[in-house]
Write a structure and sequence with these properties.
This protein is mainly alpha-helical. 83% of the residues lie in helices and 0% in strands.
């Protein structure tokens, strides 16, 4: 049974593939920047960590990384849920369960993104 437009939210496999690759690249760049900073900073304490995260470039990179992680997680979890939470495998209530789990994922991802932005850009 094909996944309907209701659960795919109008996305295509190609767009998901591109988003996964681009988000993977952004997350790799972020990992390399943070790892490089940790290796090059002789003493990591709250003051040095705060100084790093007060810079505009690292704030923007962090927001891109969190948005990339959110997109990457959403596409991955959507794939898992639509593959394994099906009527064939779980019975007639599978669609309702899948939609509930997808809405839960949206809520969690939204909270994480808003929380990150509040931490980075709040006073």
């Amino acid at each position: 049974m094909a996944v309907t437009n209701v659960t795919s939210f109008g996305r295509s496999g190609l767009s998901d593939w591109i988003v996964q690759r681009v988000s993977g690249v952004v997350l790799t760049i972020y990992l390399l920047v943070i790892a490089g900073w940790l290796l090059l900073t002789p003493e990591v304490d709250f003051a040095s960590w705060k100084a790093l995260n007060s810079g505009l470039c690292i704030r923007i990179l962090t927001v891109f990384a969190v948005l990339s992680l959110a997109a990457h997680a959403w596409i991955g979890m959507w794939g898992v849920l639509t593959d394994y939470v099906t009527v064939r495998l779980m019975g007639p209530k599978a669609t309702l369960l899948r939609v509930f789990l997808q809405l839960g994922m949206i809520a969690v991802i939204f909270v994480y993104v808003v929380w990150t932005v509040a931490i980075l850009w709040g006073k």
